[in-house]
Amino acid sequence: MRIDILTLFPEMFESPLSHSILARAQQAGVVDIVLTNIRDFTTDSYKKVDDKPYGGGPGMVMMAQPVFDCFEHVEKLSPQKGRVILLTPQGQKFNQTKAVKLSAEKRLILISGRYEGFDERIRIGLGAEQISIGDYVLSGGELAAMVVVDAVVRLLGGALGDEDSAKDDSFSEGLLEYPQYTRPEVFRGMKVPDILLSGDHGKIAEWRRQRAVERTKKTRPDLLKENQNTLKITEGD
Ligand code: ADE
Description:
Helix content is 36%, strand content 17%.
């Protein structure tokens, strides 16, 4: 997969992209992540990327021209057409289902904004979809782009050391993940549940599912409602 990120702050991505899974996935050639600075496409000597909103109001708006010129440059860097995404609190809420869908694409082009938002003609003209990572306002779309990149890349084949670990993630089946334990068996008086030491894989799987359902019911009942049909949860669960 190729991921292009258009941003005013490419340096913000340096650390997250150079550690752990994201670093390994790039080294292994699973993903190619390319950062491009929108400010390099300004046409005036002040390198202006924002301006006052028509109609008045507080804050500044990202201008269409630098984003369009940057996009047109980036688009030509590869013959592969990309799915274009604007990171904005006005977008559709990002979740694991969306991450799975995006992980099937060959190329993503993410555009991170700053200021009060994008000139609407950017969304329309570039045919971009909008993604929000949650109902809160960040200072810019960079952190949101990193969240999307991380969630998507770890789903790509070869990105994780253990192929199974993405399958059991929270949300992957509409449930939160079951409780996990590692050594020692007793820590500060708290013991690992006997069933996990039993070696009975059938019973362990059943216990894990029950705990996952229980946990989800308690903290995220909205997830259970959303996935009731596919989960086939019975009264006893
Ligand atoms: N930019 C600012 N806030 C955001 C959010 N919640 N999601 C995506 N992009 C954003």
